[in-house]
Structures are given as C-alpha cells and as structure tokens.
Amino acid sequence: MSNFLNSLVCPGNCPFDLELLPKPAYIVGGAVRDGLLGRKREYLDLDFVLPGDAVGVARNIAKHYQAGFVLLDAEREIARVVFPNATADFARQEGDTLEVDLHRRDFTINAIAYDPYRQKIIDPLKGEEDIKAGILRMVSPANLQDDPLRLLRGYRQASQLGFSIEAKTQAAICSLASHVTSLAAERVRVEISYMLTKPEGTPWLKKAWEDNLLSPFFKSATPERVAKLMEVDRAASLLAQSWMELGKKFPEYIRDTVKTTWLGIAKLAMLASPDPEVAEIELQNLTYSRAEIKAVTTALKSLKTLNSGEMSLREQFFFFQTAGDVFPTTTILFMADNNRVEAIAPLIARYLDPDDLVSHSTQLVSGKDIILYLNIPSSPLVGELLTEIKVAQAEGKVSTPHEAIEFARQLIEDWN
C-alpha cells in the first residue's frame, strides 16, 4: 500500500516538484484513503496541509508552473492550484499540531495523513483499520454538525467506496438531519449528482431521503415514488438487455457540458414532483441547469402521454416531437412504473429505426417553398402547414414535394 502512496508524490505523478514545499508538509484526505484502497486516479486530486502560509506556497507554485490559482478561503488560508491533469489544494493546518487538524475532519478514513519526506502514515484515529473493514465512522458528531454537508457526503462516499456506515455514525447523521436546510443548494446538488451516476448510489439516495437528508429539497416525493428508484435501475438493465442500442444511451451525458446521464435524469424525475411545473421549481431551487430541468420535465410530460394508453400514428408523431432525445429516459420511467415491455416495444422499434417517419420526421418542402408556391405571406400558418405535412408523410398520405404542396393547398382551403 505504501508503494502506491509513494507514487502519489514521485516525480512522474506529482504535478509539481516537492522541493517547493516547506517542511513539514502532509498529504491528507481522499488521496491517502484511495491510495490505501489501491484506487488509482486518472486525474490527481491532492490535498496538502502546511503549518503556515499555505496561500503563499500555493501562489508560488502556481506562478512557477504558470498554473491556475484560486483562493478558496482567505480566512482559513486555503488555496487551489489547477494543473492540466491534477488539482492541488493547500490549507493551513488547523490547530497547533497535525493531530489536532486530523481530529477536526469528518470521517476516520479521511483523517489520515501521509508524510512524503519520511514516507510515513500518520493515523491517530485508526482510519486505516476502518478502511480495511469497509466502515465509514465519524470522528465526532460535532464535526458533522460544523458542516452539515458532511451528512450527505457520508452517504455519497459509502456508495462510491462500497462501505457501510457504522451504527453510531448513522444515528448521529439522522439526529442532525435538520441541519441540511442551512446548506447552499448547489452543494447539495453536487452530492446528489455523485449518487445519480451509478447503480451503487441508488440505495443511498433512497436512504438519504428516508433519513430526511433529501426530503427538505424534494417535498413532493412520496415513499412509493422513492421506492421506485431501485426499479429505475432494474428497468434500465432489462431494456438494455432487450435493446442494446437503446441501452447505450442510458449512461451518456445529456450534454457534453452537463455531467448528468439519461439514467440519472430518470432518477431525478422519481425524486421530483410528478407535476412538471412543480418539479421545475424544485430543480431550480437546487440550481440544476436548464438542460437538466428541461430533460426531467420533458420526461414527466412524455410519461404521462405514454400512460394515457394506445396512440394513433398522429399522436405518436407528436409524442416523439415532444420526447426527442429524452425518449430513452421516458422508457425507463414507463418500465419502472408499469413493467410492460409489450406496451413500449413498438415505440422503441420506431425510435431505433432512423428511417421511421413517425419518430424521425423529414422535411419534404421548406417554408420558402410553401410561401412561393402557395403565394401566402410569412406567418405562423407556414409552420403549421409544415407540421401537418410531416404528419401526413408519417401517415403515408404524401411522399413527394409536389404532393406536399398540394396537400398544404387543400388544407388552406379546408381551414378557410
């Protein structure tokens, strides 16, 4: 284990020369924990504790390497240096000694320090034993109360590491749950997002709601809907087994700049209100992006349409127009609610067929063509005609530009 810890600070891995650090200096937190677990990181995230002038040291290192510098907390002297493939945070030691600093941390597995010069682990709270046992144990209830985000972070780390939460720690978290309302919404959102990414996080999302850590933010959620979080993962797995191409969509990010997956959107939809307008407000309050909010509300609207029963070709056309890229998420929600593959299978077949004109409409004529050949002014009417032409094409009524123009001409006559 120590060999891997050494690799964290060897010249080939550390983003800067350790000679730029004062002595003593210690690596603490997640990097040490993951080193002891043998979890390798593609992107290094290092935390250093220094006896003093942490901001000055960080500033000098940033200047030396022309790296990014961020002052995180002037009062507590915490600064960050951002390298292309690593981030290094530098903090002034809290208290007179390193041991005092470690005793102020959240969980014992995160209260371990590593001295890169002496190649020595400093572990006054026996966090290494808890790592070996797979247990998340608090340092103290007071530490959790000092920053209530640590309550949610415990569930998130348990899910990521596959750990259990020690009984007294679990009881302390539940007793302090009301303090989460003091947290900034974006901090809560980040912890939720970690648990949305993989199936391992789903039981902990459910438990976080049951233990009143999430219920203040998702006030419309019910025990029945929260219980379906587990069904969401099962539904996604069943759908992926039957339709591999559909399953490939579930782990994809909804946008390159938004690190929430389509499967994660399905889980958010289960936590949020089934009423799209209420869900929008809940997610806005948690500072979710417009793209994430639109994905959730679109999925909820589309699910309502699916649950309404069999649809005509025209109704299917407008359903796909509304669902768009959110269709894979909608199938997950439908399966989690109903578990009826036969009801959704025809729509999945259409979605996966790029030539299907119901789910993937094409444009036979343009708005300019309509204006030119029918001698009408530019107006919302043109858009309505283009939509009706697409519906008629999906229904097999038109297939050429000429037929499309004549169909539009007849519509105008009928409407007048």
UniProtKB/TrEMBL annotation:
<keyword id="KW-0547">Nucleotide-binding</keyword>
<protein>
    <submittedName>
        <fullName>Poly(A) polymerase</fullName>
    </submittedName>
</protein>
<dbReference type="Pfam" id="PF01743">
    <property type="entry name" value="PolyA_pol"/>
</dbReference>
<keyword id="KW-0460">Magnesium</keyword>
<dbReference type="GO" id="GO:0000049">
    <property type="term" value="F:tRNA binding"/>
</dbReference>
<comment type="similarity">
    <text>Belongs to the tRNA nucleotidyltransferase/poly(A) polymerase family.</text>
</comment>
<dbReference type="GO" id="GO:0016779">
    <property type="term" value="F:nucleotidyltransferase activity"/>
</dbReference>
<keyword id="KW-0808">Transferase</keyword>
<dbReference type="GO" id="GO:0000166">
    <property type="term" value="F:nucleotide binding"/>
</dbReference>
<dbReference type="GO" id="GO:0008033">
    <property type="term" value="P:tRNA processing"/>
</dbReference>
<dbReference type="InterPro" id="IPR032810">
    <property type="entry name" value="CCA-adding_enz_C"/>
</dbReference>
<feature type="domain" description="Poly A polymerase head">
    <location>
        <begin position="25"/>
        <end position="137"/>
    </location>
</feature>
<feature type="domain" description="tRNA nucleotidyltransferase/poly(A) polymerase RNA and SrmB- binding">
    <location>
        <begin position="162"/>
        <end position="221"/>
    </location>
</feature>
<keyword id="KW-0694">RNA-binding</keyword>
<dbReference type="InterPro" id="IPR043519">
    <property type="entry name" value="NT_sf"/>
</dbReference>
<dbReference type="GO" id="GO:0046872">
    <property type="term" value="F:metal ion binding"/>
</dbReference>
<dbReference type="Pfam" id="PF12627">
    <property type="entry name" value="PolyA_pol_RNAbd"/>
</dbReference>
<dbReference type="InterPro" id="IPR032828">
    <property type="entry name" value="PolyA_RNA-bd"/>
</dbReference>
<dbReference type="InterPro" id="IPR050124">
    <property type="entry name" value="tRNA_CCA-adding_enzyme"/>
</dbReference>
<dbReference type="Pfam" id="PF13735">
    <property type="entry name" value="tRNA_NucTran2_2"/>
</dbReference>
<keyword id="KW-0548">Nucleotidyltransferase</keyword>
<dbReference type="InterPro" id="IPR002646">
    <property type="entry name" value="PolA_pol_head_dom"/>
</dbReference>
<keyword id="KW-0820">tRNA-binding</keyword>
<keyword id="KW-0819">tRNA processing</keyword>
<feature type="domain" description="CCA-adding enzyme C-terminal">
    <location>
        <begin position="263"/>
        <end position="406"/>
    </location>
</feature>
<keyword id="KW-0479">Metal-binding</keyword>
